[in-house]
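Q: Tetratricopeptide repeat protein, please. Structure only.
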Amino acid sequence: MKLKNIVSVLFAALFCTSLFSQAKMTAAEVDSLTYAQYLKGDWDNLIKSGTKALEHGIDFYYLRMRIGYANYMKQNYRKAIPHYQKAFKENPQDAYALAYLLYSYQFSGRKYDALALSNQIDSLNNPQLYSKFSPGIKSFGFFFTYNNATASNTQQKVGNGIQVSTDGIQKTTNNYNISSMYLSHSLGRHITVYHNISYLQKNEHNFSILDNQVYESENQDLNQWDYNLQFQINPAKGITITPIYNYVSIKIPLSDVGLDDFKDSYSMYGAILSGDIGNFKLGTSYVLGKINKINQKQLGIHATYYPFGNLNLYYNLNTFFKNQEYENQNESDFIHQHTLGFKISNYWWAELSGIFPRFTNFYNPISGGMWNGLEGAGNVININNIFFIKNSKLSLILNTGLYQSVSEFEPIDTPMNRSNKQTYSNFNITGGLLWNF
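A: Structure for Tetratricopeptide repeat protein:
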């Protein structure tokens, strides 16, 4: 471009910003203005000029690419997405439009849309993009949780408060640890499968009432396997349907007291429907099944807000309307979970999370977490730290949690007629490694 043409373009950028309010600009004038703003890196004014042009019916490929790039440079990836979608639709052979669209999906938490679009990479002969977004194993990790309860003072209160006239059981936790493995992989370009298997080793202080007699065990072991399976299906842009299945198998060794081991198993199943709209992700869920022989029905409403259109700051709200039913007994709960996630540095993200108020027999379909101990829990506070170690592919996870355990006597015949409520604090810490491929 000749020098006088460059001067003319820059002049247009300086003095034509307000022309939309005075007279409708032509496509050529919009092209000159936004190109000058693009050259200067004037992203804010480029977005304003481009948006105003779209409002006046001026829309062309390079305008969409420039508005998308301006939002991308401001890290507002969710605002960049619709512009790159339109540009790529107009020119499916443009590797730049595809690459920026894929990365905008990736950096805004919409990996499933990037996977669905990955079939377009083949025709562009871009091995780097293909290796990053193609189907296959997506992530793998292993984690270990250690818990230490402070129930020593509570155990005496539990023993003193139990009524021996009703057969039943009451427990407090001494300690526990959980070993778990996580794997996600794709099945084709529209389905991602998530597996999580965990093994719980728990030591409890147990009070059992049978025929007006109290049987106390200060150290009773409990072993539990928990498998969580989710299929995230992407039928259309911005939409996911996720069928869920959770299976629990419990064993309490009793051979040392001359009894057969206690064994139990149960399942939960359901689905999550969610959609991305601008800077919001909205969804609903429904799960049902049995936990500790009590029928469960649970409706969830979920919302996540990304104020800057990226993962540097977000707020997530999960609400659950839960109903438990056993024979003629019925109990309803309203549970709400709040999570604030934010970026601390390029290598450190953190999440602050809380679940309120008290609950029993609770399965969280969003996290896959199962709370199925005979004790209830309440006011769960977690601090989750994610440290990126190598090219953001390997992450160190460090989580600390504090919650209130609620120990109650549970009758055998009427398990929801609880009594002898005692509370104490529980603390756990989780560490692990997660690989993203």
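A: Brief note, in case it's useful. The chain has two domains: 3-129, 137-436.
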